[in-house]
Every structure is written in structure tokens, then in C-alpha cells.
Design goal:
Helix content of chain B: 25-40%
Number of strands of chain B: 14
Helix content of chain A: 40-55%
Number of helices of chain B: 8
Strand content of chain B: 15-25%
CATH architecture of the largest domain in chain A: 3-Layer(aba) Sandwich
Structural class of chain B: alpha+beta
Oligomer: heterodimer
CATH class of the largest domain in chain A: Alpha Beta
CATH class of the largest domain in chain B: Alpha Beta
Number of helices of chain A: 19
CATH superfamily of the largest domain in chain A: HypD, alpha/beta domain 2
CATH architecture of the largest domain in chain B: Alpha-Beta Complex
Distance between the termini of chain B: 29 Å
Order of helices and strands of chain B: HEEEEHEHEEEHHEHEHEHEEE
Number of domains of chain B: 2
Largest interface: A-B, 31 and 25 residues
Shape of chain B: globular
Strand content of chain A: 15-25%
Structural class of chain A: alpha/beta
CATH topology of the largest domain in chain A: Rossmann fold
CATH topology of the largest domain in chain B: Phosphoribosyl-aminoimidazole Synthetase, Chain A, domain 2
Strand order of the largest sheet of chain B: 9-11-8-12-10-13-14
Number of domains of chain A: 2
Shape of chain A: globular
Number of strands of chain A: 11
Radius of gyration of chain A: 21 Å
Chain lengths: 370, 340
């Protein structure tokens, strides 16, 4: 076993997990009512489902995934914009899991099958390299994702990419979505488990205003099983004490201020705007659009991105991905889950993306009622 | 997206393949009643009666890429795979094979010789012989390197074959050794990733392990966890046997190198092919004897009890991860195409 391997195993130790589960039980006894925790990250759902944590959690404690899958919250008209660009003879460079997600009338993959030029890339840097290697093509990077991918997109723009390169930003910004969930009248979220890797860039201090304004305890957590359990203990301690506090349960990676240089570049390139999130509706300040300083690389300035699309597939209308991302429903509340809608033949984005709740539940055996 | 053509998922051994067989093959070819184990059983091989004896018959195509890999090659894979399929039905000893080749025009004869030498050595190891064959050569556009088909025939006394469905609540689940070796080694070889030592395919005939286990105790079901890995083998056994299986992840033997490489690649060793391992369901009283008999053989030194057959969760496999519990599902597609 390598040193790195044993380092990881430390965070999967069953005896320590036992202690944390006991602590969760006694905190729930003390709280004496049902508690709902929302996390906003596919990697958290992955850890929870893969290690089967829900089967050992106290009965009255529910841990749900919120709008934490960037592919899933990308709105259909945004995908339509990308497809519309590809159909104009522009090469659209996209992340792999975005490639298969259906917009109103098909996906980028479908567009490629019909002759459009679509290139799957692993990063913004990859997209720039593709543009450099293919100077005769106009390359648009279909920029999706949260802060974790927005910061790298900003970095390549700040480094002055080639003229044949531009960016269609559909980047999303997580804190406004958490605020929107907190504001939902029917929301019963008692605490947020915030995503450790996004916080490496933004710093956990970012959540301070959210905690103050909405009074919802928030704990930043990592992605190994014990990281998740420790963060949940932290949340229940705050809830039990009636404290709307903010804690960092992932100090080995996350600091209060995050990556200051990356943040500066990100806010130089992007500014918050308001657009729709798929399934959730308008999130004030939830999108990142490019600032005027970077207008020359803004695909929305350079091309006609306004598609003229018809109505969506009726099957898509039955998809409850939006409710799932709002924490209002579980995948198995959906009549399509696991039968009509599978990773082989997905209907909605929650089943397409590796980070989607439905995909994760399907991969790890469906509902965790073991 | 509706499927109107065959995809690689259909060949990966999981649910898509079963759909293909259910919809396109079994309605035409599965006949009732004449065979002890017929096509519809979708077991490792067929068993059909000839007088007092039963003949066991199986066939496999082999398309592995690369043809030669750490721990073996397509020839060893072909002989082992066929011998093992027969052994899983209880037919060990007196085994005869056929070997049919489709070879690419221009294929290096020295490499072909190495592959044949490896086949001969594997036949000796498994005490079987190749008795018939066929050779075709195609242009490079029509075949990539070498495709091999082997069929095998063996004999069991009538009624003494073992199926993959005979397990019962109370039985213990035993594996004959470490899990995930073949799949992870192939990926590392193909991607040319160096994860350090001990990434070698486990490809080997397991007929002797089967004999040892069956001599030591009552084996109620067996299966070789090839395509789709241990996860698929256990799900099939649970489903066909109408029982549940509880699996303790920490009890499953996995080499540290395989575990580490799987972690880096994001591939679960439980979901990739093994080519020299057996999963046994064993009557509880005989478990210790079976495990100790396996451990006495060089191919069974890591044999271990990994779980229980239970009455609950019928048709499903419950995985205890050490920090929680969940259902273990079959992978939809082999994460790596052309590994066997």
C-alpha cells in the first residue's frame, strides 16, 4: 500500500465511522425532530451513495442532494445555444458529460451526428489548445460548471487566447442557488453541507453572508466517508445548539479566503447575472457572464446564438429532475427512474451526468433502503 | 435515443446483453425440456444427456486487446476461458477443445508461434487437448490482429453437474483468490500506465481448484467472475437462485496495486473481469474445509469467505462497505472494451 493509499484509507475507517454514527444518533435524540440537510455537490452524493452511508444514518435525518450537478442545472435553452452555434459551422468544444445532455431538440452529440462540428475536451486549456492547433476553425468553448470550472475558464481568457477562440459562458455560481433554496417558502432545509472543492477556490468565508442572512447552519465538508460524517456531526451540533454558524470540516484542503489570485481573475472575467437554472427557474445572480473587458472573446457578442426551437420532447416533460435538484423529490419518486430512464437511455440531465442524483443512485443500486 | 443497432454494451455481459438475448436469440433457439441445462439457462455451458452420461459443451470468442499482456495472452485466455466454463458446470478432466482462428493478413508469424506455444502450455496445465480447428485470413480492414474462437466439450455423470443457480440461504460465498487482477492489468497495459508492480492478469485454468473444492465439501453453485466482474457474477447467482447475497467489501481479497490503480482510474475492481478465479457457494458446515483445500493449491492461496447467502433481498446483492450498506448493482457496460 502506497503512502497515499493509506492516507485515503484513514478516512474510510469503520471504527471511526461507528463513533460518528453514534454521535449523530445522540444529537438527533437531543434535537428531537426530523432534520433535513442539503448538500450541493455531485461528489458528495457519490460518496454517500457509494459507501452506503444513508443506510446507517439516524432515521429522522435526511440528507438530500440539491442543485449540485452543473450539467443538470444547465438550462435547455443554453444547450440550444450551443447546438445553434455548432450548426452554424463553428466548432463547439464541450465537456464530455455535457455532450449527451438533451436540449429542447436533441443534444450536441445529436448535432454532431447530423454533421455539426463538436469536440469533447477535458478542460478550458484543452479547448484553447484545440483552437491553436486548428487555426482555420472558429472554436467556441461551451463553458459549463460552477466555480471549480469557471476559475480555469477565466484563467485561459486572462491569458489572451487566440482570435479564433471564444467562450459561450453558461457558468453557474452556487451561493445564490443556496440562497434561493433557503428562500423557497416550502423549504425545510435545516442545514447546508457545502462542497469542499469549490471552497478551495472561493474560501469558506464566502458562505458567511448566506448563514447570516438566512440563519441556516452551514458546514464545508470533504468527500471521503468520514469527511461527510464529520461535517454532518458539525451540522447537527449547530442545529442542536440553535446556532446559525459556519464551520470548516475540511481544513486539510479548504481555507477561509481560498485561492485569492484565482478569485481575482475570476471576478475580472466574469460578473453575476440572472438566468434560469434548469428545473429551478430564475436564480438572481446565479449565472456568470463575461465582463465588457473580455467582450472580444464572448461568443454571445460574436455570433448569433439565438436558436429558434420547437417544443420539448413530451417524455422530457415527465422528468422531475428539477424537483430532485430543489430537494423536493428523490429519484425513485420519478416514474421514469430506472425503467424508461437509465444511463443507457437517459431522459433527463440527472441521469446523463455522472454527477446527477439519478445516475448516482442507479449506479449504486437504486434507493438505499438496505 | 432508441437503439436500432448493436452497441458495445450489448457485448459487455450485463443487462444490455441479456436484453439482446431475450429479445433476439432465445425466442428462436431456446428449446424446452431436452437438455439438463439448455440455452435459456444462460449458464457457462450447456449440459445435455447422452445415455448414462451428460455432455457439457461451451464456446467462446476471444478478442482481447493487446493480444499479449502482462500475465498472459489471447491463447492462454482462450484455453483457460473454455476449460473454466466447462469446470463451472462440473466437467473437469477428459476435456477436448476446438480452436478457430481469424487472422489479419500480415500478422507476424513469430507472435502467432508464441501464442500457440502459450496455448499448448496452458492445455498441459489443464490436462486437455485441442482436437480440431479452422483458419481464415482476412485483409486488415476486416479483422484487427487475431480473433479466436474456442469450443470445449467435457463429460459429467448424469445429474452431477453444478449450475450457477443452486445456492441456498445459509450457504457461504467463497472466492478462490484476489479480485480485479485481469481487468485492471489490461487497462494499465493498454493505456501504458505504470502503477508499479503486481499488475498481472490472473488468466489460468481453474479446473483443479474446482476439483479440490468439490472434494472438500458441498459446493451448491459456482461461477467464474469474468465479464462484468464479481458484481455481475454475484447478481446473476442471486437472481437465478432466488436468494440474496450479503457481501463484506473488506473480506474481498484485492491486491494493493489493483486497489490503488482502480482508485486512480475510478474503476471498481469488483466490476472488472477475472480470468482465473471462481466464486463458490458452499454449505456452511463445509466452508472451512473448502477454503483450506483451496489455500493448499498455488492458485488458491488467497481464497476467502466473502459473504453469506440470505433469504432477504432476493435477487440482489447487499454490499457492506465498512462504513455503510448499499446494493451492489451490475455495471451497465464493461468499463474497458475487448478485455477477453
Amino acid at each position: 500500500m502506497s503512502a497515499e493509499g493509506s492516507e485515503v484509507l484513514k478516512f474510510r475507517d469503520s471504527e471511526q465511522a461507528e463513533v460518528l454514527y453514534d454521535r449523530l444518533e445522540s444529537l438527533m435524540d437531543s434535537i428531537g425532530r426530523e432534520v433535513a440537510i442539503m448538500h450541493v455537490c455531485g461528489s458528495h452524493e457519490e460518496a454517500i451513495a457509494k459507501y452506503g452511508l444513508r443506510s446507517n444514518l439516524p432515521e429522522d435525518l435526511s440528507v438530500r442532494m440539491g442543485p449540485g450537478c452543473p450539467v443538470c442545472v444547465t438550462d435547455m435553452p443554453e444547450i440550444d445555444e450551443g447546438i445553434h452555434l455548432a450548426e452554424q459551422g463553428v466548432t463547439v468544444a464541450t465537456f464530455g458529460d455535457m455532450y449527451k445532455v438533451p436540449g429542447t431538440e436533441g443534444s450536441l452529440r445529436d448535432a454532431e451526428r447530423d454533421g455539426a462540428s463538436v469536440e469533447v475536451v477535458y478542460s478550458a486549456t484543452d479547448a484553447v489548445e484545440y483552437a491553436e492547433d486548428n487555426p482555420d476553425e472558429e472554436v467556441v468553448f461551451f463553458a459549463t460548471g460552477f466555480e471549480t470550472t469557471a476559475a480555469p475558464t477565466a484563467a485561459v481568457l486572462a491569458a489572451e487566447p487566440p482570435e479564433n477562440f471564444s467562450v459561450l459562458s453558461v457558468h453557474k455560481y452556487v451561493p445564490p442557488a443556496m440562497a434561493a433554496i433557503a428562500e423557497l417558502p416550502e423549504s425545510d432545509v435545516d442545514g447546508f453541507l457545502a462542497a469542499g472543492h469549490a471552497a478551495t477556490i472561493t474560501g469558506y468565508g464566502l458562505f458567511e453572508p448566506l448563514v447570516e442572512e438566512y440563519g441556516i447552519p452551514t458546514v464545508v465538508g470533504g468527500f471521503e466517508p468520514l469527511d461527510v460524517l464529520r461535517a454532518l456531526v458539525g451540522l447537527l451540533e449547530l442545529i442542536d445548539a440553535g446556532e446559525a454558524g459556519l464551520e470548516n470540516a475540511y481544513p486539510r484542503v479548504v481555507s477561509e479566503d481560498g485561492n485569492v489570485a484565482a478569485k481575482e481573475i475570476m471576478w475580472d472575467v466574469f460578473e453575476q447575472t440572472t438566468r434560469e437554472w434548469r428545473g429551478l427557474g430564475e436564480i438572481p445572480g446565479g449565472n456568470l457572464s463575461m465582463t465588457d473587458a473580455y467582450a472580444e472573446w464572448n461568443a454571445r457578442e460574436r455570433y448569433d446564438v439565438d436558436p429558434d426551437t420547437g417544443p420539448a420532447d413530451p417524455l422530457t416533460e415527465q422528468c422531475i429532475c428539477g424537483d430532485i435538484m430543489a430537494g423536493k423529490a428523490d429519484p425513485d419518486d420519478c416514474t421514469l427512474f430506472g425503467t424508461v430512464c437509465t444511463p443507457r437511455d437517459p431522459v433527463g440531465p440527472c441521469m446523463v451526468s455522472d454527477e446527477g442524483t439519478c445516475h448516482i443512485w442507479n449506479t449504486y443500486g437504486g434507493r438505499p433502503e438496505v | 435515443m432508441l437503439e436500432d443497432s448493436v452497441t458495445q454494451d450489448h457485448g459487455a455481459g450485463g443487462e444490455p446483453m441479456r436484453d439482446l438475448l431475450d429479445e433476439h436469440v432465445l425466442p428462436r433457439f431456446a428449446a424446452d425440456g431436452q437438455d439438463d441445462v439448455g440455452l435459456a439457462a444462460l449458464d457457462d455451458g450447456a449440459v445435455f444427456p447422452v445415455g448414462e452420461q451428460a455432455v457439457v459443451l461451451t464456446t467462446d470468442n476471444h478478442v482481447v486487446d493487446p493480444l499479449q499482456f502482462p500475465g498472459g495472452d489471447i491463447g492462454r485466455l482462450a484455453v483457460s476461458g473454455t476449460v473454466n466454463d466447462l469446470a463451472m458446470m462440473g466437467a473437469t478432466g477428459s476435456v477436448a477443445l476446438t480452436n478457430s482462428l481469424v487472422i489479419e493478413d500480415g500478422f507476424d508469424l513469430d507472435v502467432l508461434d508464441e501464442i500457440f506455444a502459450s496455448m499448448a502450455a496452458t492445455c498441459e496445465e489443464a490436462d486437455c487437448r485441442i482436437v480440431a480447428g479452422d483458419t481464415k485470413v482476412l485483409p486488415g480492414d476486416d479483422v484487427d490482429g487475431l480473433v479466436m474462437n474456442t469450443a470445449g466439450v467435457g463429460i459429467v455423470p448424469r445429474g452431477e453437474h453444478v449450475s450457477d443457480a443452486g445456492l441456498e440461504p445459509g450457504d457461504k460465498v467463497v472466492v478462490s483468490g484476489t479480485i480485479g487482477d485481469h481487468g485492471i492489468a489490461l487497462l494499465a497495459a493498454r493505456e501504458d500506465i505504470d502503477f508499479g508492480a503486481d499488475l498481472e492478469s490472473d488468466v489460468a485454468p481453474v479446473d483443479q481448484l474446482v476439483d479440490l473444492a468439490r472434494e472438500a465439501g458441498e459446493v451448491t453453485a459456482m461461477k467464474d467472475p469474468t465479464r462484468g466482474g464479481l458484481a455481475t457474477a454475484l447478481n446473476e447467482m442471486a437472481e437465478k437462485g432466488g436468494v440474496g447475497i450479503e457481501l463484506a467489501e473488506s473480506a474481498v481479497p484485492v491486491k494493493p496495486g489493483v486497489d490503488g490503480a482502480g482508485e486512480v482510474l475510478g474503476i471498481d475492481p469488483l466490476e472488472v473481469a477475472n480470468e482465473g478465479k471462481v466464486v463458490f457457494a458452499v454449505s456452511e458446515a463445509d466452508t472451512e474445509a473448502v477454503v483450506s483445500a483451496l489455500r493448499d493449491h498455488p492458485k488458491g492461496t488467497d481464497a476467502a469467505v466473502i459473504g453469506d447467502v440470505v433469504d432477504e433481498h432476493r435477487g440482489r446483492v447487499v454490499l457492506d462497505t465498512g462504513v455503510g450498506r448499499r446494493y451492489l448493482s451490475e455495471p451497465v457496460s464493461e468499463p474497458l472494451p475487448r478485455i477477453c
